[in-house]
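Quick question, first post here. What does this chain look like in 3D?
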Amino acid sequence: MKRLLLLFAFGLAFATPAYAQLSPGTSGFSSAPTTASEAEYWIMIRRLGVCLADAKHHQSITFITSSPGSKEEDAAFSELFHRNTNRCMGNFVSASMLRNHVRGSVAEGLLNLMDEEEIRKAVILPSQAPEEIRSIHEFAYCYVANHPQTAYQFLDETRVGTKGEIAAIRQMATDFGPCLPEGVSIEINPVNVRAAIAEAYYRLLTAMPPAQLQGS
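> Answer (accepted):
Ran it through. Tokens below.
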């Protein structure tokens, strides 16, 4: 029986971007861009992936299938945001979005375009616990393969950056151990876990291997 010590970091403020601005006039009658709040940022992230997956479907798939931290990922990310304005960002004129937030949002957007019944009926073969976890992507791939229904329910019923997301991950964490090596101490960032689970779910449904970090 594998043992796991989880150190939960449930604060979400540290995961938001250092810089994000809303377009003039979004708040009140100001004629200059205003700094976005944490809540506004998460609302944008929730909508972003759905919009990109629909408006830039092939580019979104290319982005998700690239290796995190690679030149291919950089190029794919640029294709999604290569113009000065992007309607998928809504009222945001700029934002220093974390790349993993965008990967998770786009993965959820691609899942959203799939037929819900087909997703529920899809057969996901269980994955054996890896001897060595090298990234959060491999952990998530293992977890989703062994708990597909719970993972789907989590993505379907909670929203990124919310208390509901945190509560759900607290419950799910009791099943994280088998997908991690014995005795590992890990700090859980709810948003990062969600992003990895969303991408892993999409990869499993499309018969893709887990994402591999560049250089791993």
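The radius of gyration is 18 Å.
The beta strands are 4-8, 20-22, 34-35, 92-95, 184-188.
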